[in-house]
Design goal:
By secondary structure, the chain is an alpha/beta fold. It contains 18 helices and 18 strands. It folds into four domains: 105 residues, Rossmann fold; 69 residues, Signal transduction histidine kinase, dimerisation/phosphotransfer (DHp) domain (Helix Hairpins), CATH 1.10.287.130; 151 residues, Histidine kinase-like ATPase, C-terminal domain (Heat Shock Protein 90, 2-Layer Sandwich); 114 residues, Response regulator (Rossmann fold, 3-Layer(aba) Sandwich), CATH 3.40.50. Helix 17 links the parallel strand 16 and strand 17.
């Protein structure tokens, strides 16, 4: 059906208590192909509208029982009729005040009687076209929202499916580094380091892929706290240095000797600098120099710059480099790969921290400089320095490890036993429930994506059964804020996202204290 036919087949309710005006308007619209209904009072108009749901109402403002403004207002307040288009008509002179009153009541157009039949038909056609466009836009918005929801579900499932094998590989490689570093040849040690670096790179890609959807839509929250930006930079540089060396780059740094205290999310700020360093490495040829500098300005801000001697940026590239999926077409950039989302994350995260990011390049072949500016906490007292000594605090726990991935289960179990813990394993929820009798385990490390009975259901059962004497730790590929909130509701004490560094698992186990009856505080669940 064409748009013209669709409009012509619409239903119009004509409301007017003047017989001549009612006849002329109804006749003209019926001749144009509309299905016509009539009413001569406000109450009759309301009843017909509620019963028949016309597409358009041509409504006179002066009726014997109530004003057309009141009829319009009641129609717009009722969910059954609020979407009907309304054309006000009046046989008296229309002042600006009357037009405003009609539009405020919900009318779409205001016509003066007597009107030309062609004018009436054209006005009805116009409001119908507008309403059709609005409905199509709403339908498209609903479809887009549904598609966006399905995309988020797909990305969450994709991350889980990717993180499970990455976790198994990561644990195995880290175990090689801890157990057999002296027994490996120099060549095998290099191969192990390559695998470890690439697993880390894959993990960052998975995290960025998920984060860009949440961050650009505002579905994330910063976990802010007072921290020294020097420490954040130190961690980011330590992670970037092996990659720089692998690509034949020189990494230089110049950081302030005094702490730079900011109010920020440590994980997110490390993500900012890691992405900038990765970007510099990707766009720099072998032998290039990457320089990281930081200084405190007089306006109580800290400025961190990441400068490279790479391929540089054209002016037009500098304008769009922070846009989603923006990538240069240069062969070097394509050879290094990437998703084109890292700098988008940088911009959003820096902005959320109250700062800004800018880029400068003198042109192609002249390198690039990215500068991050963040506000300092000038009135914050320096926290007392503490040194975490995990080894001295380590206790031997009785641990139940539940994971349906045999490689990940075997690798982590072996590592936990090397640390002196007693470990039992289960491959699914029913097996875990059968094994986890009260008093048997101190710690239960539980995967969420289990077949059949998922980890949330298992945790809910276990939290009531062993809440007095066991810590429940989620070790999972699901890492969205919604996943963490659901873990807390299910009874988990901690939520760790795969793949987790073994040193992080060791730190978590070292920080656990004995669980005493009545002291379990789910509202303070930690995550990593």
């Amino acid at each position: 059906m064409s748009p013209v036919l669709a409009i012509a087949n619409a239903t119009v309710l004509h409301v007017n208590d003047t017989p001549a005006s009612l006849y002329l308007g109804t006749f003209s619209l019926r001749q144009a192909g509309y299905r016509m209904l009539e009413a001569v009072t406000g109450e009759e108009a309301l009843q017909v509208a509620f019963d028949s749901r016309p597409d358009v109402i041509v409504l006179d403002v002066k009726l014997p029982d109530m004003s057309g403004y009141d009829v319009c207002r009641r129609l717009k307040e009722d969910p059954r009729t609020r979407e009907i288009s309304i054309i006000h008509t009046s046989a008296t002179f229309i002042t600006a005040e009357k037009k405003v009153a009609g539009l405020r009541a919900g009318a779409d157009v205001y016509l003066t009687q007597p009107f030309d039949p062609e004018e009436l038909i054209a006005t009805v056609n116009s409001v119908l076209r507008l309403r059709r466009v609005e409905r199509e836009a709403l339908a498209n918005a609903a479809r887009l929202e549904e598609a966006d929801r399905k995309k988020d579900e797909f990305l969450a499932m994709l991350a889980h499916e990717l993180r499970n094998p990455l976790a198994a590989i990561s644990v195995a490689v880290q175990m090689l580094g801890q157990k057999d570093s002296n027994g490996l040849s120099e060549a095998d040690a290099r191969r192990r380091d390559i695998i470890e670096r690439q697993v880390s790179h894959l993990r960052h890609l998975v995290d960025d892929l998920l984060d860009v959807s949440r961050i650009t839509r505002g579905k994330y929250a910063l976990r802010r706290g007072r921290l020294d930006l020097n420490t954040v930079l130190q961690h980011s540089l330590a992670a970037a240095r092996p990659v720089m060396e692998e690509r034949g780059l020189v990494l230089r740094e110049a950081r302030p000797t005094a702490p730079c205290w900011v109010d920020g999310d440590r994980t997110r700020l490390e993500q900012v600098f890691t992405n900038l360093l990765d970007n510099a490495a990707k766009y720099s040829p072998e032998g290039g120099i990457v320089t990281v500098g930081a200084h405190v300005s007089e306006d109580s801000r800290v400025r961190v710059s990441v400068q490279d001697t790479g391929i540089g940026l054209r002016p037009e590239d500098q304008e769009h480099i922070f846009e989603l999926f923006a990538q240069l077409d240069a062969g070097l950039a394509r050879s290094r790969g990437g998703l084109g989302i890292g700098l988008t994350l940088v911009r959003h995260l820096v902005t959320e921290h109250g700062g800004h990011v800018e880029v400068f390049s003198e042109g192609p072949g002249q390198g690039s400089t990215f500068t991050i500016t963040l506000p300092l906490l000038t009135d914050a007292a320096r926290p007392e320095a503490t040194v975490e000594r995990i080894e001295s605090r380590r206790r031997e726990w009785r641990i139940l490890l539940v994971d349906d991935n045999p490689d990940a289960r075997e690798g982590l179990s072996e590592m936990l036993q090397l640390w002196g813990h007693t470990v039992a394993v289960a491959s699914d929820g029913p097996e875990a429930l059968a094994m986890a009798t009260p008093g048997t385990y101190d710690v239960i490390i539980l995967d969420i994506g289990l077949p059949g009975l998922d980890g949330y259901q298992v945790a809910q059962e276990l939290s009531g059964r062993v809440a007095s004497d066991a810590h429940l730790i989620a070790l999972t590929g699901y890492g969205t804020p919604e996943d963490r909130a659901r873990s807390e509701e299910a009874g988990f004490d901690l939520h760790l996202v795969k793949p987790v560094e073994l040193v992080e698992i060791g730190r978590v186990l070292a920080q656990l204290g004995p669980v005493k009856r009545g002291t379990r505080r789910r509202s303070q669940m930690k995550s990593a």
